[in-house]
Specification:
Length: 366
């Protein structure tokens, strides 16, 4: 049977049916119903943050977050090219200009020093990404934000469930965006959320995700439609109950990979970050000076019907639509380019069988 890079976890079928049963009576299927309300409250409690606003996906959450601050059109947002293209598109689709800074080789997150060097009077925000759930240098970004009076938005799409010294990834920066896509550690089929402290943003974000409608006869803003439905929220309520188990099961797969692949020449594993409790969202491996190139390993696995992912490749600043920007083109961010050309994320999901992990490692090593 084919092994894909990921496989969605699902709650117990009966449990999900119980969760959605009331919808057949209420007939309230979307537009911020009871499930939506319950999930927002549950996530605020879980993440330890005053406000969580749900969205129909992570991308629209990020796009709306940038829109909510009314940043001046043409303003520059410094970000990483080592990300999913959604991050960069969210900037551009707000009429802002992405400026790409290079990454830190040790954890592939945006390098605060490289960001600092690119700050000008045109800079309006900084948008780092917690790549693979590995946290950015949050202290350095906080200091940068304060020193230059710039908002810090984290793309925390990968970092749900990650904590640093007990503090959740939601608590860093002005806002954090989570993706609850079906492939994520915690999902609502499609879905996303913004986590933040600022009280005045609650009403604004709720309006913006619902066409800018403030009341039955009042349209306050030019908004879009990014509402999470009751079915998505119900899936989230069920999945939140099994989140710890999900992370533990993934952790076992990670341990098995580590035991087989650690210490091999030319194979670089992600390792752990001090004080950080991981969510085991992805298992990235960089083949740098290994007997097979990344593409050869990919082909050998694909030949056996095992499908890893070249994630993140290509860099977003090397995509057709961004290459002509001043910081476009992979030569502008050589460290990110080096990793993107060599990385593979291996299959990782809660019920990936130990014998399949062994088979994947055998193919890589032999
Ligand atoms: C880093 C990153 N940012 C943004 C997104 C977009 O999230 P969504 O798919 O929920 O729209 C993703 C999705 O995988 C992602 O990995």
């Amino acid at each position: 049977m084919r092994i894909n890079v990921t496989r969605s976890s699902l709650p117990d079928f009966e449990e999900f049916c119980r969760e959605i049963q009331g919808l057949w009576d209420s007939r309230w299927l979307t537009n911020m119903g009871d499930k939506h309300q319950a999930l927002e409250e549950a996530l605020e409690a879980y993440l330890g943050i005053p406000h969580v606003t749900l969205f129909t996906n992570g991308h629209l959450a990020l796009e709306t977050a940038l829109a909510a601050l009314h940043l001046p059109k043409g303003g520059e947002v410094i970000t990483t090219p080592y990300t999913f293209v959604s991050t960069t598109h969210a900037i551009s689709r707000n009429g802002l200009v992405p400026v790409f800074a290079d990454i830190k080789p040790e954890d592939y997150t945006l390098d605060p020093e490289k960001v600092k060097a690119l700050i000008t009077e045109k800079t309006v925000a900084i948008l780092p990404v917690h790549v693979y759930g590995r946290l950015c240098d949050v202290e350095a970004f906080e200091a940068l934000g304060k020193a230059y009076k710039l908002p810090i938005f984290y793309d925390a799409a990968h970092a749900f469930g990650v904590t640093k010294e007990g503090v959740s990834s939601a608590c860093f920066g002005d806002m954090a965006m989570y993706s609850f896509h079906a492939t994520k550690v915690f999902h609502t089929i499609e879905g996303g959320a913004l986590a933040y402290r600022e009280d005045s943003l609650v009403q604004l974000l709720n309006d913006l995700k619902n066409f800018g409608i403030r009341g039955p006869e009042e349209v306050a803003y030019i908004g879009g439609n990014a509402k999470m439905s009751e079915f998505q929220a119900a899936m989230g309520l069920c999945n939140l109950r099994q989140l710890e188990e999900e992370i533990q099961k993934r952790g076992r797969v990670v341990e098995q990979y580590n035991a087989r692949l650690a210490g091999r020449e030319g194979i670089i594993l992600a390792g752990t970050q001090p004080g950080v409790s991981p969510n085991h969202a992805y298992y990235p491996v960089v083949f740098d000076g290994y007997k097979y190139s990344r593409d050869e390993v990919f082909d050998r696995l694909a030949f056996q019907d095992i499908v890893p992912r070249k994630y993140f490749y290509p860099l977003t600043n090397d995509s057709e639509c961004y290459r002509s920007l001043p910081t476009g083109g992979k030569d502008k961010t050589p460290l990110a380019a080096h990793v993107a050309d060599r990385v593979l994320t291996l299959p990782l999901y809660a019920d990936l069988a130990p014998e399949d992990v062994d088979r994947i490692c055998d193919i890589i090593l032999k």
